[in-house]
Amino acid sequence: MNVTPDSFFDGGSHQSHETAADAGCNLIAQGADMVDLGGESTRPFSQRVDAPLELSRVLPVLKKILEKHPRANVSIDTYKASVADETLRSGAVAVNDVSGCRFDPDLPDILAQHQPGYVLMHSLWPPETMQDAPSYGDVVSDICSFFEERLNVLIGKGLSQDRIVLDPGIGFGKTLEHNLEILRRIQEFKTFGLPLYLGLSNKSVWGKLLGLALEKRGMVTQVAVALTAAKGVAVHRVHDVESTRNTLELFKSIWF
User: Which of 104, 114, 217, 234 is the most exposed place for a label (fewest CB within 10 A)?
Assistant: First the structure.
């Protein structure tokens, strides 16, 4: 859930902290295991915002959600150490970081201090430039090398390895073919022995592949969730929680 004016799916949807908190509570009611709360858009070509503005967007919403659901799991979508620190002190339990701890050198120390859950995500460059002609030798091998290097940094700083999940970053500095190659070979990332995390919900990859407008991508998102679950992906970051829970329940009933 994005408390921003410009995120690709729900940017600008929440006009107050109260309505944003209600939307978060609705995700919990639908069965979300965790609500991922973001105060800065990371869509391609988006512009960065400073930490005080980001905090002013997410912190009141976090507190309101936890007032209504004290045991809720809330992750914060941020790469900034100060935002992570303040929100973790206020009850967030995880950090979803598009930068792999590369944009803010203080973030690894904050993670080591709090020991939250941590989404280690690959992106080629920052959002404002990541889609400027992305190029790889072998996209899966290159991302594996990135994960290995970043894991060494994070574990070396003191973050427990069992707090980390891996996200190859679909749409973050990748062409359509890069994204499809990652999904075809997603099982190769399991060599690290860590859970895999994917954000495929309503992504532009489905528009490029199938010519689907944003509002038409729901069904293909569910198909992609089922297919990647079959390949061992453990965590799915989605907008439509209810449909995804049904998809995964159907998958488990048939597959196992």
Answer: 234
DSSP-H helix ranges across 37-117: 51-68, 81-89, 107-114
What is the β-pairing status of strands 197-198 and 164-167? unpaired
Q: Is 71 a catalytic residue?
A: no
Residue 203 among the catalytic residues: yes
Residue 29, SS3? Answer: helix
| Exposure string for 13-34, b = 16+ CB within 10 A, e = fewer | ebeebeebbebbbebbeeebeb
CA distance 151 to 154: 5
The dihedrals phi and psi of 110, each to the nearest 5 degrees, come to: -65, -40
Distance CA 109, CA 154 (A): 9
Mind listing the pLDDT tens digit for each residue in 98-143?
Answer: 999 999 999 999 999 999 999 999 998 777 776 888 999 999 999 9
Residue 72 backbone dihedrals phi, psi, to 5 degrees? -70, 145
Catalytic residue, from 64, 157, 208, 237: name it: 237
Fill in the amino acid letter for 143. Answer: I
- Cα–Cα distance, 81 to 252 (Å, whole number): 38
Neighbours of 70 (CB within 10 A): 8
Given a contact cutoff of 8 angstroms between Cβ atoms, the answer to whether 58 and 71 are in contact is no
AA letter at 61: V
CA distances from 60 to 4, 9, 19, 56, 91 (A): 13, 21, 11, 7, 12
pTM of the prediction?
0.93
Give the pair of three-digit tokens for residue 81.
């150490």
Query: Using CA atoms, how far apart are residues 56 and 78, in angstroms rounded to an integer?
Result: 13
- Please tell me which residue in 80, 150, 203, 217 is annotated as part of the active site: 203
The answer to whether residues 44 and 79 touch, using CB atoms and an 8 Å cutoff, is: no
